[in-house]
Design goal:
By secondary structure, the protein is mainly alpha-helical. Helix content is 76%, strand content 0%. It has 10 helices and no strands. The two termini are 41 Å apart.
Length: 295
């Protein structure tokens, strides 16, 4: 128990969260200016570094770099909120995939071809899909969070069984923090090994965009399944089981979106979040109906 408390203070305390937030903000700012400087030096032919890279052609694409670090912080927040609120934990999943689309938009903005043949150009068409998807996802996440807050307001006093469930979720979260740190480090090393300075070749953008997060969501599916199985020890309510199972389906759909591209990927993401919203809407109606029947 003493080791558990020490690890909880190291990885999941409010103090740790604030320190990580501060570090990430500084790193994001510094990386943004470094990226801008490299683009500027390349533009004025002071250096010749990966001239064909999509991330070094326009200053707008420099926003891609700090967003990547902000996404890492969102990953930490997802783990941080896992023991505190399952709904917030799922919300963070949806926020992460939306931020990935927003990050991609900045790269796409730098590559837009403003012509009358807008819908015939693949890059411009994908930008249209992504900007529409980001608006729809923002709307869906708002309502998902609203339903989650409504459920939290009605929550009764925490009993001993719920406390044990929370403790098990804390154990999972404590394991996930160093695990995802190692995963991020290993994927960064793997990506770096694919860079060739001699031939000035960088990995494709799709590889960069999917870097870390395809493995990340694969692990989240396994975590969601573990949480579902553990929840069976504490509840046998049908609507709770369906809710947790539905969130697993939603996470799987998000993971599948990394295996495809174009409009299919965008549709999978929207369907995943929409499915999660419908699940929590129906779940809350079940809760409301059960409350009325017990009064």
């Amino acid at each position: 128990m003493k080791i558990f408390k020490i690890l909880e203070n190291i990885f999941l305390s409010e103090h740790t969260k604030k320190r990580i937030e501060k570090v990430i903000l500084y790193v994001a700012l510094i990386s943004f200016f470094i990226h801008l400087i490299i683009i500027g030096l390349s533009k004025f032919d002071i250096i010749s570094l990966f001239p064909n890279s999509e991330l070094l052609l326009n200053p707008i694409s420099a926003i891609y770099t700090p967003f990547s670090f902000i996404l890492i912080y969102e990953v930490y927040l997802l783990i941080y909120y896992l023991p505190k609120s399952f709904t917030i934990y799922i919300t963070k999943q949806y926020e992460i995939i939306t931020l990935i689309i927003i990050r991609k938009l900045f790269k796409d903005l730098s590559m837009l071809e403003l012509t009358s043949d807008w819908f015939d150009i693949k890059g411009d068409l994908q930008f249209t899909y992504d900007i529409f998807a980001s608006l729809v996802l923002f709307f869906l996440i708002f309502h998902f969070q609203k339903q989650g807050n409504r459920k939290t307001e009605k929550k009764n006093k925490i009993g001993p069984m719920v406390e044990r469930f929370v403790k098990r979720k804390k154990i999972i979260a404590i394991v996930l923090v160093p695990f995802f740190f190692v995963l991020a480090l290993s994927t960064l090393i793997q990506w770096s090994s694919e860079i060739s300075f001699s031939t000035e070749v960088m990995p494709s953008f799709e590889t960069i965009n999917n870097l870390f997060f395809d493995d990340f969501f694969t692990v989240l599916i396994l975590v969601d399944v573990i949480l579902l199985l553990i929840s069976f020890f504490y509840t046998d309510k049908f609507h709770k089981i369906i809710r947790n199972s539905g969130f697993i389906v939603s996470t799987i759909l998000i993971r599948l979106s990394f295996g495809v591209s174009g409009i299919v990927s965008t549709i999978l993401i929207i369907v995943a979040v929409l499915f999660g919203l419908l699940i929590i809407l129906i779940h809350n109606e079940y809760e409301k109906n059960n409350t009325l029947n017990n009064t």
